[in-house]
Amino acid sequence: MNDNISKVKRILIIDLLYLGDLIFLTPFIRNLRNKYPKAKIDMIVNSSFFDIIEGNPYLDQVYAYNKKWSIKESWSFARRLSQNNYDLGLNPHGNWRTALLLKVINPAYTIGFGGKGRGIWLDQELAPADNMHMVDVYLNFLAEIGFESIDNQGIELQVNQEASENMADFLQKHGIKDEDRVVGLNTGGSWPTKQWTKDGFAQLGDRLQEEFKAKVIFFGGPGDVERVNEIVKMMNTTPIIATGKTTLKELAALAARCDLFISGDTGPVHVAAAVGTPTIALFGPSDEQKYRPYGQNHQVIENGIDCRPCGHHHCPLEHHKCLEEISAEDVLKRVDNSL
Question: N or C: which end of the chain has fewer CB within 10 A?
């Protein structure tokens, strides 16, 4: 291991990516703490997802960065953190914004993913490994800088006690008993192309309640409310709607109560996996090799169409067959193995 990082006392991680990416980074954080049990380890995260990571037991301080801040506000934020005099700065995100922020914060030694010229601001530039899950990409980052003992015990997320109590009250108000089988459905997606069909979710919700006698709960944030309301209007049965009604901590607590969680490739499915709930993830344009729910008891559905995974936010062929041609019956066949 490089002498510059063998005995550091103050470490900063910066990652402004999405919710799922933060979940994927949790083994990285845990292994960093195992290597430096007495160091101060801080992290900068996207303010939109601060709540989900602030309780991480391996971090001393989590700083929320608002991506809507002006250059002046970003500069002030970075200069303030520079006063912490970090020995080591780690950038597993590796874009221009994080590179610039880390440069201004100015840790004594910096390591990160570079490319496209960003490596000029790093003391040690790494290239992300290909053809592996993002969890393993991040763990490989640590191997590249000299970590000899790396545990791969999986992703993890602690459920907040207050959030758990709030969701217990929520479930009780909706008549959910301890013995009830509960299935979470998450209909949203950060890209339109990641969203399965409304009709598919409506059929799935009905059949889960009618044939499997499960209680269906719709998840999602405020931006998903309209879509979920449209789906519910298409249903013959009555589900429970938590969409737009939970914080991120409460989302994790509610997902932990589910016996199964079904979603496209988006943050909440990775939250569910992190709290130990079996998942079924529907993959369209994104690459399941990199982004599938990590660990055991998780299933991926993709229809094998030649043009996927394309990674596009809008279907370049204007048909979106990768998800539109997955039926509720296709999903229910997997449910039969999980409930």
Answer: N
The closest of 40, 8, 41, 30 to 149, measured between CA atoms, is 30
The CA–CA distances, whole Å, from 19 to 9, 28, 52, 167, 242 equal: 28, 15, 8, 20, 18
> Quick check: 268 pLDDT over 80?
yes
Angle, CA 26 vertex, CA 25 and CA 28 arms, to 5°? 65
Task: Render pLDDT for 269-313 as a digit per residue (tens, 0 to 9).
Answer: 999 999 999 999 998 778 889 999 999 889 999 887 777 776 667
Token pair of 171 as six digits: 């479930």
Could you check whether 3-144 and 161-335 share the same CATH topology?
yes
Residue spans of the domains in the chain: they are 3-144, 161-335
Note the pTM of the prediction, 2 decimals.
0.93
Residue of 50, 45, 59, 55 lying closest to 16 (CA atoms): 45
Token pair for 293: 């729910």
Cβ(235)–Cβ(229) below 8 Å: no
The per-residue DSSP string of 30-77 comes to HHHHHH-TTSEEEEEEEGGGHHHHTT-TT-SEEEEE-TT--HHHHHHH
Q: What is the pLDDT of residue 317?
A: 66
Torsion of CA 229, 233, 235, 239, to 10 degrees: 40
Question: Is there a cis peptide before residue 309, judged by omega within 30 degrees of 0?
Answer: yes
Cα distance between residue 187 and residue 194, in whole Å: 9
CATH 3.30.450.20 fits 161-335, yes or no: no
Q: What is the CATH number of domain 3-144?
A: 3.40.50.2000
Q: Let me know: does 142 contact 32? Beta carbons within 8 Å.
A: yes
Angle at 23 between CA 21 and CA 24, to 5 degrees: 60
- How many H-runs (helices) and E-runs (strands) does the chain carry? 15, 12
Token pair 């055991």 in the structure block, residue = 296
**How do residues 210-244 score in pLDDT, each as one tens digit?**
999 999 999 999 999 999 999 999 999 999 999 99
